[in-house]
Amino acid sequence: MQKNFDVYYDEENLKKILLQRIKDEENNIFPSVILIDTISYCNLKCFMCPHKNMSRKPGIMSWDLYKKIIDEIAIENPKARVWMTFFGEGLMLKDLDERIGYAKRRGLKDVVLNSNGNLLNEKWSERLIKAGLDVMYVGIDAFEEDTYEKIRVKGKLDNVVKGVLKYKELLDKIGTENQKIFVQFVEMPENEKELENFIKFWNSYNIPVKVRPKVSWAGKVEAENLKDYEFRLPCNWAMNTINISDQGKVCMCAVDLNCEVTFGDINKESIKEVWNTTLKDFRLKHLKRRWSELPDLCKNCKDWQSSYASYIEPEVK
């Protein structure tokens, strides 16, 4: 399912698109996607993720900072997609459901969680659904147990499968029609032959599948799928997303694990202020293709090729 960007690339058409997007920046005053690092600890050591080598100290976001972030989103853009975790495993956070509940009470419409699912059980499922979690994404990345154990190191596929199916069961019983669960498959050479069976299995339980390409985490992991194109396109993550660490630092992007490049501090500034100053300058450099002026971590990064996903819905019977 990898994209071949040569098919989509047309210089003249791209110029027109980018000029329009530069004009649109006048009205782009608040992010449509906010990633919150409520917890940066993780219980797995996945081979395609550099988290196990993270150099910044892991932590848990304070309630004061969390409320400040949620309260601003509630005023400025309650329809924004708000991810409850950035790099960590949310189910390690004991008050995760309370935080989700606070966001929903403040009127946020799209609160989502990504999890590896190894701690997902009936109790957690009920707590998350009742708190109002809109969408749950569970990263699994394999159909066969031995493949899973090589990719999701320290994880147990059987536990994850049981947890996801229980979540779906409870969702059908006590959830609303707007609440959903997806399973995710990060496509790579180690698992690509299992994708078809993976989709068939989960779709048979009426659970949609999200497929996305492997990322290099700004060069920290080998990603064979990323090509050396003669051209470069603006990164979708840079255009739409703000990433806030557990300490309130605004990290450059969704693959800046160690927050090596910071564009602001939400303890001292508002999301809107950072979005319309340092991050706006960052976006415009992308849109104007001034690649040489980007931070070193971004300058030669190929992960713009991975900032998309495909969704496979179950067939309607």
Automatic annotation (TrEMBL):
Pfam families: Radical_SAM (PF04055), SPASM (PF13186). CDD domains: Radical_SAM (cd01335), SPASM (cd21109). It comes from the Bacteria. Transmembrane segments: none annotated. Residues 28-245 form the Radical SAM core domain. InterPro entries: 4Fe4S-binding_SPASM_dom, AdoMet-like_SPASM_containing, Aldolase_TIM, Radical_SAM_PqqE_MftC-like, rSAM, rSAM_sf. Keywords: 4Fe-4S, Iron, Iron-sulfur, Metal-binding, S-adenosyl-L-methionine. Its cofactor is [4Fe-4S] cluster. SUPFAM superfamilies: Radical SAM enzymes (SSF102114). This is Radical SAM protein.
